[in-house]
Structures are given as structure tokens and as C-alpha cells.
Design brief:
The protein is built from twelve helices and eight strands. It has 280 residues and is of the alpha/beta class. An eight-stranded parallel barrel has the order 1-2-3-4-5-6-7-8, surrounded by six helices. Bound molecules: 5,10-methenyl-6,7,8-trihydrofolic acid, 3-methyl-2-oxobutanoic acid and magnesium ion.
């Protein structure tokens, strides 16, 4: 595995080449694990509001939440390109979007930001790019506007809806985005969009013809049990493994088999005698 830090040109070059693997991380220890496993891009997703903070949507996530988690992740990454989500309400105007994108880079240590939306946010994406911050667009199912979309639902299912996803992706690419992420769209539509864009597409629930894939780390590892979207493959059941380990710990504490002598600090007999005497 290459250990040098990946750059935007490295990502762009993968339009021709092996698909890009992207995965979320939200803290330092997991960022190290994800980075060392060879992921190309680490996403500090606003999904942290759901899997880390227990909200039922990504809407309550603030810029402060994003910066807090992003800083921790940045400390754990040596190889991957670090992308941070612009949270709900952080791109209401160009001026505000610029300030927030710059904050994620300067304070959070992000290499790039991701903005949900399509044609309607293309001018904002372009302004962020002009300020020197690489932008990844996010089209299809955009969880920050899930209420307007009717929930966490597949997008682009009929001709009109497919045209909208296509135009959104095109608008973001034209705005200068280095990549476009497509969430929950039919695989054939994602394949067409991938062929027509010059920048790499990253899919989640968008079939295997995208230029890369992304998943939420907790879903991949089986650490989140509130729902499992159809597009998730659980590569492990760490939630179950952790529960069993902690149950063992609780049992060992109850029956005094933990801590064992090797986990305890000991004294020589003469030191103990002296100590006990002085305590009396
Ligand atoms: N843990 C987690 N994983 C994610 O992938 C994720 C988050 N959280 N939070 C933010 C959004 C929300 N996402 C979701 C959530 C649920 C579905 C889901 O259950 N979809 C249905 C299809 C519904 C329909 O089209 O009728 C499915 O069966 O997969 C999809 C995307 C993706 N993002
Ligand atoms: C699901 C991915 C694409 C995301 O935006 C997130 O984790 O917030
Ligand atoms: Mg997100």
C-alpha cells in the first residue's frame, strides 16, 4: 500500500483505474484503523449525528460538531484524502458557505468538503472551489433534505426524476467539483452518469459501475442497529462481538476473576509489613 498522502490529482486519475474506496470515520482511533486498512478517502459524514450522537436524522448536526470530529479524525490519517460534510444550514449563502468550508479546512484539518444538493447549490460549490477548497458534490438521496424528498428513499426512479439526478450531477461537475457522490439511485442511471462525467463518481446504493464506493463505517462493521439500508453489506458484526466481550467483563467482575494477579500491582512482603505498620 502506498503510504504517501493522497491528493486531488490522485483521486482524479482514478477515473481511469481501480475503483476508489471511501469510508466514514468520526474519531481518532477508528480513523487510524480505516486509514491503515487502505481506504482512499475518509469521510467525516454528518451521519455522525445519527451513529455517534443518536439523532434520528442528520439535520441537528452543527458546524461545531463537524469541526470537533474532523479534528480528531485528521490526527489519525496519514494516507487517505480527508473529506468533511458541510452540515445542514451551513451553505445558506456564498459568504456563509465560504466561511464554513474554510473553517473545516483550517480548524478541522479537512482536505476537501462535501456539499449536498444539485443545480441549486452549484453556484455555492463553485464559490468554495474558487476559494481553494476542493468540493465533492452529493446528489440523489440527500439526507439533509429527506423530509422534502419523502424520507430516505431511492431517487431518480422515473424519467423526470432521473433527468433531475443527471442534471444535478452535471451541474456540480461543471461547477468544478472534483468528484460527485450519488446516493440511492438505480444502478443503470448511476452507470450512465458515471460515463458522462469527467470526474470520478462515488456511489452509495448506486450500483457497482461508479468510479468508487462509500459506506458508513458503523454499517460496514455492524455497529449500528437502528436500521440497515438495502445498500449496506455488513462485513462484520462488531456490535455482537462487543456485547459478548462486555458481558464477559461484567461476569468476571462479579466473580472476582478480573482483575487477575497479572493486572494488579504487588509489593514485596517486607514493604507490605512496613506499609501496614505505618497505616495503623
Ligand atoms: N447508519 C447510517 N447509514 C447511512 O447510510 C446513512 C445514515 N446512517 N444517515 C444518513 C443517511 C441516511 N441514509 C439512509 C437511510 C435509510 C435508507 C433506507 O432504509 N432506504 C430503504 C429504501 C426506501 C425506499 O426507497 O422506499 C432501503 O430499503 O434501503 C437509505 C439511506 C444514508 N445515510
Ligand atoms: C452516507 C454518506 C455519503 C454521508 O454523506 C454521510 O456519512 O454523512
Ligand atoms: Mg452526509
Amino acid at each position: 500500500m502506498q503510504t504517501r498522502k493522497l491528493t486531488i490529482p490522485d483521486i482524479s486519475a482514478r477515473k481511469q483505474g481501480p475503483p476508489l474506496a471511501m469510508l466514514t470515520a468520526y474519531d481518532y482511533s477508528w480513523a487510524r484503523i480505516v486509514d491503515r486498512a487502505g481506504v482512499d478517502m475518509v469521510l467525516v459524514g454528518d451521519s455522525l449525528g445519527m451513529v455517534m450522537l443518536g439523532h434520528t436524522s442528520t439535520v441537528p448536526v452543527t458546524m461545531d460538531d463537524m469541526v470537533h470530529h474532523c479534528r480528531a479524525v485528521a490526527r489519525g490519517i496519514e494516507h487517505a484524502l480527508l473529506v468533511a460534510d458541510m452540515p445542514f444550514g451551513s451553505v445558506r449563502s456564498k459568504r456563509q458557505a465560504l466561511a464554513n468550508a474554510i473553517r473545516l479546512v483550517q480548524e478541522g484539518g479537512a482536505d476537501a468538503v462535501k456539499v449536498e444538493g444539485g443545480a441549486e447549490t452549484a453556484n455555492i460549490a463553485a464559490a468554495i472551489v474558487r476559494a481553494g477548497v476542493p468540493v465533492q458534490g452529493h446528489v440523489g438521496l440527500t439526507p439533509q433534505t429527506a423530509v422534502s424528498l419523502g424520507g430516505f428513499k431511492v431517487q431518480g426512479k422515473d424519467a423526470t426524476a432521473a433527468r433531475k439526478v443527471f442534471d444535478d450531477a452535471r451541474a456540480l461537475a461543471d461547477a468544478g467539483c472534483f468528484s460527485v457522490l450519488m446516493e440511492a439511485v438505480p444502478a443503470p442511471l448511476a452507470a450512465e452518469i458515471t460515463k458522462s462525467l469527467a470526474v470520478p463518481t462515488i456511489g452509495i446504493g448506486a450500483g457497482n459501475q461508479c468510479d468508487g464506493q462509500v459506506l458508513v463505517m458503523h454499517d460496514l462493521l455492524g455497529l449500528y442497529d437502528r436500521f440497515v439500508p438495502k445498500f449496506v453489506k455488513q462485513y462484520a458484526k462488531l456490535g455482537e462481538t462487543a456485547t459478548a466481550a462486555i458481558q464477559d467483563y461484567v461476569r468476571d467482575v462479579a466473580n472476582r476473576s478480573f482483575p487477575a494477579p497479572e493486572h494488579s500491582f504487588h509489593m514485596k512482603d517486607e514493604e507490605l509489613a512496613l506499609l501496614l505498620k505505618s497505616l495503623r
